[in-house]
Specification:
Blueprint: H1 3-9, H2 15-28, H3 32-38, H4 44-57, H5 61-67, H6 73-86, H7 90-96, H8 102-118
Length: 119
């Protein structure tokens, strides 16, 4: 069970809250290719070529991009740092849209994780 479903079943958030939070995540949690394209380091064609290789090899996008010469190691490291620094978890997104308080989020995450660990 995902955290959103857990909150929904308790009546603490709505399906619309889930959609809004996921939209916030989608807007902020960019993929390496998207970040590289923003910087002008990759084109859409480059990304598609890398994705085709990724389908066949199941390797990470960044590893392929470096190996194939699309990105340097330094560029990949910069992109990974940017990706990590801007990542928003679902609970954080719920906070941003005002669907839940920080106190409730912390309390409910603890409860959710205890429940998950018990199986």
């Amino acid at each position: 069970m995902k955290f959103g479903q857990f909150l929904l079943e308790r009546g603490l958030i709505s399906e619309m809250d889930i959609l809004h939070a996921r939209f916030v995540q989608k807007k902020n949690n960019l993929k390496i290719g998207e970040l590289a394209m923003e910087r002008g380091w990759l084109t859409e064609d480059d990304i598609n070529r890398i994705l085709i290789i990724q389908e066949d090899t199941c390797e990470r996008f960044g590893e392929i991009a470096v190996r194939e010469g699309y990105l340097t190691e330094g560029q990949l490291e910069e992109l990974l740092k940017k990706q990590k620094d801007s990542y928003i978890f679902f609970g954080e997104a719920l906070l941003q849209i005002g669907a839940i308080s920080e106190y409730d989020l912390i309390t409910l995450l603890k409860e959710f994780n205890r429940k998950r660990l018990r199986g």
